[in-house]
Amino acid sequence: MKFNTPLRYPKGRSNIPSFFKIIFAHNDLLDGHYVEPYAESAGIALNLLTQGYVSRVHLNAANPAVYAFWHSVINQPEALCKAIHDIKITTEEWQRQQDILRSPENHSALEVGFSIFFLNRINRLAILYGDVTDGKSQGKHWKFDARFNKLDLIRGIEWIALHRSLIHLYNQDATGLIKTVLPSLPDKTLVYFDIPCHTEERGLHHDHDSHHHRVSLAKLIKENILQHWIVSYPNHPGIVELYKGYPTIVHDISSNARNRPEDSEIMIFSNRLIIPDWKNPSNLKTA
Q1: What secondary structure letter does DSSP report for 73?
Q2: What is the distance between the alpha carbons of residues 64 and 283, in angstroms, rounded to a whole number?
Q3: What's 150's domain CATH number?
Q4: Molecular function (GO) terms listed (predicted)?
Q5: What is the pLDDT of residues 151-180, one digit of tens each?
Q6: Count of domains forming the chain
Q7: How many other C-beta atoms lie within 10 A of the C-beta of residue 75?
Q8: What are the φ and ψ backbone dihedral angles of 36, each rounded to 5 degrees?
Q9: What predicted TM-score, i.e. pTM, was given to this entire model?
Q10: Under the phi-then-psi rule, with left for phi > 0, alpha for psi from -120 to 50, and beta for the rest, what region is 137?
Q11: What is the DSSP code (8-state) at residue 250?
Q12: Which of 23, 86, 220, 245 sits between 20 and 30 A of 135, alpha carbons compared?
């Protein structure tokens, strides 16, 4: 079946998994492991897994609500699918889900995970804490349930659940994952750091964009990771300097919502990785 991750992601890079499939084929990584220290929509990981490119995926979600969602997908898929089936998509329900996400300590992991999923599907640009009445983009009114096709979402979660024994889920920061999890993984592993930086968009992530964090993370990646790795950031000269000497490419980020000149991304690659000769990975297609 065609796979779409249940969580929307503001970057809107739906064709990037094709680039990673070519990476896996060119580097003898097929049937290996794939790691996302900043897992959010997990679209690349689940695409690779459900289409048989990797044998295991490792998802790390530092955001407790995002972790709760993926925990529910893996451990309570039936209850999650029932919640999707039963939900009435109304303004009152939207407010109730907002309240749950703002006071997660008063709710179960399933309720918290469902709330972030519901708001991610409903809100404009996948924003979690926005105002649904602000649903106008480029002169067009945002349809309330435009991204909440219950049947497709349930089928997608059921499809992921069929592979849940191959998904390893963690709830720690990226530094902890590098130090505690990566040393135990095989050489045949690719680690993808899709660094969330645009905190003003109020997406699925917390703020990981301080200068100190960028510097310390770059040092840790370059000195501690023995497996293949890729890092992506919004394109900025300071990022290039942090990874000086490593192969890089710059590509456009397609977005349905905004067209801004700064919407390009830099990808940095570990030195041993064979990189396909493509100008724009987001335009790639594979069978």
Answers
A1: H
A2: 33
A3: 3.40.50.150
A4: S-adenosyl-L-methionine binding; sequence-specific DNA binding; site-specific DNA-methyltransferase (adenine-specific) activity
A5: 999 999 999 999 999 999 999 999 999 999
A6: 1
A7: 15
A8: -120, 100
A9: 0.86
A10: beta
A11: E
A12: 86
pLDDT in tens, 2-45: 567 899 876 556 678 889 999 999 999 999 999 999 998 999 99
Q: Is 38 helix (H, G, I), strand (E, B) or coil?
A: coil
| Cα gap 201→263, rounded to integer Å | 13
**Cα(272)–Cα(142) distance, rounded to whole angstroms?**
45
Between CA 46 and CA 57 the distance in angstroms is: 8
Q: Rounded to whole angstroms, how far apart are CA atoms 83 and 115?
A: 10
| 7 within a domain of the structure (yes/no) | no
Identity of the residue numbered 184: S
Is residue 1 in some structural domain? no
How far are the Cα atoms of 75, 241, 244, 258, 273 from residue 116, in angstroms, in the given order? Answer: 17, 36, 37, 23, 35
> Which token pair is 254?
């397609």
**Which residues are registered as beta bridge partners of 56?**
33
Closest CA to 75 of 120, 28, 110: 110
